[in-house]
Write a structure and sequence with these properties.
Strand content: 15-25%
Radius of gyration: 20 Å
Structural class: alpha/beta
Helix content: 40-55%
Distance between the termini: 47 Å
Order of helices and strands: EHEHEHEEHEHEEEEEHHHHHHHHH
Length: 351
């Protein structure tokens, strides 16, 4: 296959199918990336994913690289890099909830201004916290949720000479000199500044479905194990220690309590997100079917299941978690926006 100039690498789980179309449309159509490389995040038949890609109309621009799950990200990237270096000149890693904004430019226009100067280009992130109700599109997420800067960066980089990569930086066979890296800061006027919107959740229904369907290790503070989630839902949040609270709800609690949407710069970012992403809508019917199947698989009582679909149970869970576990001395730690430290402190763990 002919080498392309720009590509995006992402990992997709079946839970993300309802949001997949907007991701592909944004990077391939709006920003003009040549290709999307996908890793399927589950040991499952790739036929449903391939069918979804074809149905969305992107069959000629999306490749599934490996049809099996890799839990060790470093080993995964080690194996991918030689292949990707042959297939694209510049590569961006982006999850399904991460959307780069380039100030109305295409990725090729932006990189043209860096060509010959830099090998690595970073974008600052703006976090968009979870909405309290299941949204129908990104415009609703922006309208209902708080937004705040996050100093971590998302990176697009030249693949030549890269040995492996983390979620945010490439690691070359030789150290990449600082003069070959560039960071796009979020500056005034923000409308002209490249940066990234990071939608850390797509509403509570998605939050619950992710937790049920993806049985990640509990060491991941943004994940949960299925049994803890089941107990939490059945008992409507009646827990004695924060350790019983699913990690995703703990993260959600922090996000909901930090509302800085009134700040002018962040309000402007919200308007940009609405203009840029407001046309993207979720496939809510698919999400309903997936949620129903997931709840059936763990045998929740009918009354509990009904309250989940009505939204009442989820709202009550969040309110109870916030009331029960929020402490004023945690608020100071929000300044660092380091979720790992925040959650460890709330759980009484060393950090």
């Amino acid at each position: 296959m002919k080498k392309v100039e720009t590509a995006v690498l992402s990992r997709i789980h079946s839970i993300e199918f309802p949001f997949f179309g907007g991701f592909l449309a944004h990077y391939l159509d709006r920003l003009g990336f040549d290709r999307v490389f996908l890793i399927q995040g589950e040991n499952a038949d790739t036929a449903p994913l391939r069918a979804q890609i074809e149905w969305l109309g992107f069959g000629d621009r999306v490749d599934i690289l490996m049809p099996k799950r890799f839990d060790d990200a470093e080993a995964l990237f080690d194996g991918l890099m030689p292949n990707l270096a042959e297939r694209c000149e510049w590569l961006l890693l982006a999850d399904l909830d991460e959307y780069v904004y380039l100030g109305e430019r295409s990725i090729k226009d932006l990189l043209a201004s860096h060509k010959g100067k830099y090998r690595v280009v970073h974008f600052r992130s703006i976090m968009v916290a979870s909405a309290q109700e299941a949204p129908t599109g990104y415009a609703d997420v922006v309208a209902q949720a708080s937004m705040f800067p996050k100093w971590m960066t998302k990176t697009v980089y030249q693949t030549a000479g890269v040995r492996t990569m983390t979620a945010h930086i490439p690691i070359g066979r030789k150290p990449i000199p600082p003069k070959k890296e560039f960071i796009h800061e979020i500056v005034t006027p923000i409308a002209a500044s490249p940066f990234e919107f990071h939608f850390c959740s797509r509403g509570l229904r998605d939050l619950v479905l992710r937790s049920i369907r993806q049985n990640f290790p509990t060491a991941n503070v943004k994940a949960t194990d299925m049994e803890a989630l089941k107990r939490f839902l059945v008992r409507r949040g009646d827990v004695k220690t924060l350790g019983e609270v699913p990690g995703r709800f703990a993260v959600l609690m922090v996000q909901l309590m930090e509302d800085v949407s009134a700040r002018p710069r962040i309000a402007l970012a919200g308007r940009i997100a609405t203009d840029m992403l407001g046309h993207i809508h979720f496939d809510m019917a698919m999400l309903d079917r997936m949620l129903a199947s997931a709840l059936d698989s763990i045998g929740l009582p009918a009354d509990t299941r009904r309250r989940i679909f009505e939204g009442r149970l989820l709202s009550n869970c969040v309110e109870q978690v916030v009331d029960r576990f929020w402490k004023d001395d945690v608020r100071a730690h929000l300044d660092s926006l380091n979720y790992v430290k925040i959650i460890k402190k709330m759980r009484g763990l060393p950090y």
